[in-house]
Specification:
This protein is an all-alpha fold. 58% of the residues lie in helices and 0% in strands. It has a domain at 14-55.
Length: 72
């Protein structure tokens, strides 16, 4: 069996790593604008009113415990 040398990995500051994956302010603004546009379209289509009509009236065929049985 051959010996494998472990590469030394430079330790990165967790905060720097977190900061590196954050969206830019421009990306955030673009995504916010898209979400607001989708919400306006949904409101114009009456989606929110329909959800309010259905609140408490939807009955599921299976309860959560029955669905979890399949995972076991």
């Amino acid at each position: 069996m051959s010996k494998v040398k472990k590469e030394q990995v430079a330790e990165r500051d967790p905060f720097e790593e977190w900061k590196a994956i954050q969206l830019t302010p421009e990306q955030k603004a673009e995504l916010r604008a898209r979400a607001e546009e989708k919400a306006r379209k949904a409101a114009a289509a009456g989606a929110y009113e329909r959800l309010l009509e259905l609140r408490g009236k939807v009955e599921w065929d299976l309860d959560l415990d029955e669905l979890r049985k399949d995972r076991e």
